[in-house]
Design brief:
Blueprint: H1 2-22, H2 28-47, H3 60-87, H4 91-110, H5 116-134, E1 137-146, E2 150-153, E3 159-164, E4 171-172, E5 177-182, H6 184-226, H7 232-272, E6 274-276, E7 281-286, E8 293-294, E9 308-311, E10 317-323, E11 335-340, E12 343-360, E13 365-373, E14 384-391, E15 412-415
Helix pairs in contact: 1-2, 4-5, 6-7
């Protein structure tokens, strides 16, 4: 609109100037009219407005271009922080509690002076509640199910396997027959020891007869010597013969006792060829096969040379490793929960019973032994487990067992 108005004024000025040029060289009356027109044109020019004054941009547009990206960046950062905070399951409850505390404090401020102090106390208690909840944290770790009592069964003597009475996975009782071996040399040794004992018994009987005769002869000689019918030398010889016969009888008794010991030793070796279970449990590994010749316990130094392995699964535990940075918060009695990889949907309660006395230098962890409460019925040794302990008042139990244990392998037992 301002542009059209300016064009109209310029057209008027042109008409006035044309009039002036046309009146040049005329009379004085016409000159007066031309002067009037010039004055009018000057006034019109003073009233004209330049269009460029209305085409400048607002000064705020450049600043707005700089502010908008910064505002968008701040909004994105705020949204990311909100997502991280609300992803924690306990965060909404804590925020609700804090907001409730602030709301209670604001309500107390707007109320009368007499009711202000109790409301502020209640709000401060609600605000302190999440802070106390944050003092309880979790310690996580992983480990394996362990049978603390394991028996590695060897054969005490060399022999050939003639029977295997169990299979891997069988549950056995203490004293149950596991493997039978045969050794002809052991059987012959037992028979020879029994013959030697019989011979020793016969010898003992003969020596006892000789002792009785020597004592009878001594008594007769003493009676005769009392009547001066026997010389002193004969009496001394009779006493010597009696003592000799008594010593011979004692030696015969010792021979009989030695023969009985030899029989017991030979019998024990024969009986040891029947291998029995040292503990009750489950056969976890079976290396014995009919026809194999096994070495004696003294010659078998490796576990794979054993006959079988039995694990007591009645009282299994979990040995788990946690970071050594948590050792200041760990103590016997801490409770938590564990879950087995084989039973991921069946968590169960655990409690720290023992803490290893040494730290693993290679892994930077400390091993915990955890007692179990109502574990899954299908749990087996060497199952992988994950644990979570609660550090705080809620994670402390009433039971405080011994504070350390030697090592997971300390429960191994060898038999044979």
């Amino acid at each position: 609109m301002w542009h059209q108005y300016s064009i109209t004024i310029e057209d008027g000025q042109k008409r006035v100037r044309g009039r002036g040029f046309a009146t040049v060289g005329h009379s004085v009356g016409m000159n007066t009219t031309s002067e009037h027109d010039r004055n009018l044109a000057a006034k019109l020019r003073s009233l004209s407005i330049e269009p460029a004054a209305f085409k400048t941009e607002p000064p705020e547009r450049q600043a707005r271009r700089r502010v908008m990206p910064l505002a968008m960046l701040g909004l994105a950062a705020t949204a990311s922080l909100a997502v991280v905070l609300f992803s924690r399951p306990e965060m909404p409850e804590r925020i609700e509690t804090v907001l409730a505390g602030f709301a209670g404090r604001q309500g107390a401020t707007t109320s009368t002076g007499g009711a202000k102090a109790p409301a502020e106390d209640a709000a401060s208690e609600q605000v302190r509640a999440p802070v106390a909840a944050w003092s309880t944290r979790e310690i996580t770790g992983s480990g394996y199910v362990v049978a603390p009592d394991i028996a590695i069964v060897f054969s005490k003597y060399e022999g050939r396997i003639v029977a295997v009475e169990v299979e891997a996975g069988d549950r056995v009782a203490a004293g149950q027959v596991l493997v039978r071996l045969d050794d002809a040399g052991a059987r012959f040794a037992l028979q020879g020891a029994e013959i030697v004992r019989q011979s020793a018994e016969l010898t003992l009987a003969a020596k006892n007869i000789e002792l009785a005769q020597a004592r009878s002869s001594l008594m007769r000689t003493e009676r005769l010597a009392g009547r001066d019918a026997m010389s002193a030398q004969a009496l001394e010889e009779a006493k010597t013969a009696a003592d000799r016969a008594e010593n011979a009888a004692l030696q015969a008794r010792q021979d009989v006792a030695k023969a009985e010991l030899d029989i017991d030793k030979a019998r024990e070796q024969v009986e040891a060829l029947t291998v029995r279970a040292p503990i009750s449990g489950i056969v976890t590994r079976l290396n014995a096969h009919i026809g194999d010749t096994v070495l004696s316990r003294e010659d078998s130094v490796r576990e794979n040379e054993s006959l079988l392995v039995i694990a007591d699964t009645a009282n299994m535990v979990i040995d788990a490793d946690v970071a050594e940075t948590n050792i200041a918060q760990i103590r016997p009695g801490l409770s938590g929960e564990a879950v087995l990889d084989g039973f991921p949907d069946q968590p169960f309660a655990v409690e720290v019973s023992k803490i290893a006395p040494v730290i693993s230098r290679e892994k930077g962890t400390v091993t915990l032994r955890l007692s179990l409460s109502s574990p899954p019925s299908g749990m087996r040794p060497a199952m992988a487990a994950r644990i979570r302990l609660l550090v705080g008042e809620a994670g402390v139990g009433a039971h405080h067992p011994p504070s350390s244990f030697e090592a997971p392998a300390s429960g191994l037992r060898t038999s044979g």
